[in-house]
């Protein structure tokens, strides 16, 4: 008789745990029901009078050395790719703002001056770009904080 009571109790517990007889509850988002928000811009880059807000959603790091690796896109247009790399005299250093369709294409390499303070990276220099097949140079600057 005790075995039957034990089995009945286990069945009752299993049914309660599985939610038998209850209405389905709506799923709750992990953030407490709030919609997911896009990452906040980490800074700005300005070239030839045009400004892009930098969303460093791929990588944003400042390491000892200093070595800077920032990669992401423009908040205004996710297709605009932004990359900022600084490796001092030891490796490649440069900044690029490009769009695969060719409507945005700016690069700067050795012509950049970098100022690095903790996680904040600032720089300025001359960029080379292509506009409608014509190559031109323009001044540019950036200010990004890898918080």
Overview of this structure, please?
This protein has 147 residues and is mainly beta. The chain has one domain. The protein has one helix spanning 2-18, and strands at residues 43-47, 50-63, 67-74, 77-86, 94-98, 105-108, 112-117, 120-131, 134-145. The chain has an eight-stranded antiparallel barrel. A hairpin with a 2-residue loop joins strand 1 and strand 2 (50-63). The longest helix has 17 residues, at 2-18. It is globular and about 40 Å long. It starts with a helix and ends with a strand.
Indicate the multimeric state: single chain
> Stretches where pLDDT falls below 50 for ≥5 residues?
1-30
Query: Outline, from the CA principal axes?
Result: globular
Q: Biggest sheet: strands, sense, closure?
A: 8 strands, antiparallel, barrel
Rg, alpha carbons: 27 Å
Any idea how many domains? 1
Physical arrangement of strands within the biggest beta sheet = 1-2-3-4-5-6-8-9
Intertermini distance: 66 Å
The portion of residues assigned to helices is 10-25%
What is the helix tally? 1
Category by helix and strand content: mainly beta
Q: State which percent range the strand residues make up.
A: over 45%
Order of helices and strands: HEEEEEEEEE
User: What's the rounded overall pLDDT mean?
Assistant: 80
DSSP, total strands: 9
């Amino acid at each position: 008789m005790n075995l039957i009571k034990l089995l009945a109790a286990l069945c009752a517990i299993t049914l309660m745990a599985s939610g038998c007889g209850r209405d389905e509850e709506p799923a709750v988002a992990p953030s407490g029901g709030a919609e997911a928000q896009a990452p906040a811009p980490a800074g700005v880059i300005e070239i030839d009078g045009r400004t892009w807000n930098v969303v460093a959603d791929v990588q944003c790091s400042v390491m000892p050395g200093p070595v800077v690796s920032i990669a992401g896109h423009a908040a205004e247009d996710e297709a605009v790719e932004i990359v900022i790399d600084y490796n001092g005299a030891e490796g490649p250093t440069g900044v690029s703002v490009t769009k695969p369709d060719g409507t945005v294409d700016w690069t700067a390499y050795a012509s950049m001056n970098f100022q690095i303070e903790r996680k904040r990276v600032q720089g300025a220099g001359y960029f080379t770009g292509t506009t409608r097949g014509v190559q031109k140079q323009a001044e540019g600057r950036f200010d990004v904080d890898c918080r």
